[in-house]
């Protein structure tokens, strides 16, 4: 293989990866210096001249002329007789520069050099990809479904970069086909070995926040600020918004007339129910708004313990708790308070944890997951509805209700 042929093969990588000229020269010189070290033991007496624009490369070895029979280091010294074969007028003590052809390195060295070249190109390419996507962390990105696996979907962008959308970062209702475009945020970028691993997420609160920026001009322009986003992906979300301009209604601007502005976001998230709430520094008012659509009668707060006891009319309790307990749980995450719901006019009630002698802890935990922490809260529910909302069997629920009723009959 001639010098020119190797450079031409290198140019193919250059054109494909768009490596700049300075980087190209640095990589090429580094690769050849490694080859020279393996062949001659050192490389500091070699000059490498790279001209990627013309597609040529020259390697020159510099040695000192010594008298015949006095050569001690054949890499750095050359005998007078050998020197005069290059130029007949060389004398002892002079410097000799002799061009080294690739063929002089040997066939194996040339093959190894090419492999090293390819490796360096890929390493450079991967470093650039890592830097590019590291800067995109937290931003929305679109890529095409390339391969569907059990635990993840593999996406490719327009430049052929591979992006992973794990199963647990997909909205439960997500269903994608090969060739379909997918939007999400770049959640993390890591270098594993020399290869970057790019993780996309559609479940992160940041994805919803970025969708607001894309779809609602006032958010994009900074007229409306998103204070906090909490989600149960695909089910329900709460978004606290604020504006420094008193003329703007942040909730109205985000939702739009009859939900027109937020509709595309809801559709993107698999019909996720999105509550947009006006932010306020008044924590009592903020909790009241966060528990919407329930109407609250009164609140007793402990700011130090970050707890709130909320009193509601019996018909408002289920609204406050929400399907699957999502509403009360998200309200707590949004406000930073642990919220307990109490029914107005109900004087006696017993917490479920008081029945641990008769009801197993994991059963009590199942009721707590959907916001039912007291005996009467459970007894007010429909058995079929509880079967649907929990992982409990109908017989288990009926047994629990029997135990709870006996408490009030005594």
TrEMBL record:
GO aspect biological process, one term: transcription antitermination
GO molecular function: DNA-binding transcription factor activity; RNA binding
UniProt-listed PROSITE patterns: KH_TYPE_1
GO cellular component: cytosol
Keywords: Cytoplasm, RNA-binding, Transcription, Transcription antitermination, Transcription regulation, Transcription termination
Domain K Homology: 233-306, 307-384
Subcellular location field: Cytoplasm
InterPro entries registered for this protein in UniProt: KH_dom, KH_dom-like_a/b, KH_NusA_2nd, KH_sf_prok-type, NA-bd_OB-fold, NusA_N_sf, TF_NusA, TF_NusA_bacterial
Pfam families in alphabetical order: KH_NusA_1st (PF13184), KH_NusA_2nd (PF26594), NusA_N (PF08529)
Cytoplasm keyword on record: yes
Function: Participates in both transcription termination and antitermination.
Oligomeric form and interacting partners: Monomer. Binds directly to the core enzyme of the DNA-dependent RNA polymerase and to nascent RNA.
Family assignment from sequence similarity: Belongs to the NusA family.
Protein name per Swiss-Prot or TrEMBL: Transcription termination/antitermination protein NusA
């Amino acid at each position: 293989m001639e010098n020119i042929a190797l450079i031409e093969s290198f140019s193919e990588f250059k054109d494909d990866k768009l490596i700049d000229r300075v980087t190209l020269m640095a990589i090429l010189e580094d690769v050849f210096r490694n080859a020279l070290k393996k062949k001659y033991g050192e490389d500091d007496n070699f000059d490498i001249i790279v001209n990627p624009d013309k597609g040529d490369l020259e390697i020159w070895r510099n040695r000192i002329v010594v008298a015949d029979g006095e050569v001690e280091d054949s890499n750095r010294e050359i005998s007078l007789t050998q020197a005069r074969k290059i130029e007949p007028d060389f004398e002892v003590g002079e410097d000799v520069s002799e061009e080294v052809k690739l063929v002089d390195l040997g066939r194996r060295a040339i093959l190894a050099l090419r492999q090293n070249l390819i490796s360096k190109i890929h390493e450079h390419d991967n470093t650039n990809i890592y830097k590019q996507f590291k800067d995109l962390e937290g931003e929305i990105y679109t890529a095409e479904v390339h391969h569907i696996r059990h635990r993840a979907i593999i996406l490719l962008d327009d430049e052929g970069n591979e992006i992973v959308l794990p199963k647990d970062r997909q909205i439960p209702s997500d269903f994608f086909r090969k060739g379909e475009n997918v939007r999400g945020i770049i959640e993390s970028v890591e270098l594993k070995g020399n290869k970057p691993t790019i993780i996309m997420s559609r479940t992160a609160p940041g994805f919803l926040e970025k969708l607001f920026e894309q779809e609602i001009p006032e958010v994009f322009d900074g007229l409306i600020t998103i204070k906090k986003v909490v989600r149960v992906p695909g089910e329900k979300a709460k978004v606290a918004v604020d504006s420094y301009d008193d003329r703007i209604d942040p909730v109205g601007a985000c939702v739009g007339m009859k939900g027109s502005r937020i509709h595309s976001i809801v559709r993107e998230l698999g019909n996720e129910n999105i509550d947009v709430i006006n932010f306020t520094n008044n924590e009592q008012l903020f909790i009241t708004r966060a528990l919407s659509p329930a109407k609250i009668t009164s609140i007793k707060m402990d700011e130090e313990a970050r707890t709130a006891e909320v009193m509601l009319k019996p018909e408002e309790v289920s609204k406050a708790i929400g399907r699957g307990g999502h509403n009360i749980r998200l309200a707590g995450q949004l406000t930073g308070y642990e919220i307990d719901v109490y029914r107005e006019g109900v004087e006696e009630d017993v917490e479920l944890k008081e029945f641990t002698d008769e009801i197993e802890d994991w059963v009590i935990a199942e009721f707590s997951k959907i916001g039912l922490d007291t005996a009467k809260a459970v007894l007010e529910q429909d058995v079929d509805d509880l079967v649907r909302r929990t992982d409990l069997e109908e017989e288990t629920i009926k047994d629990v209700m029997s135990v709870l009723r006996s408490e009030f009959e005594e």
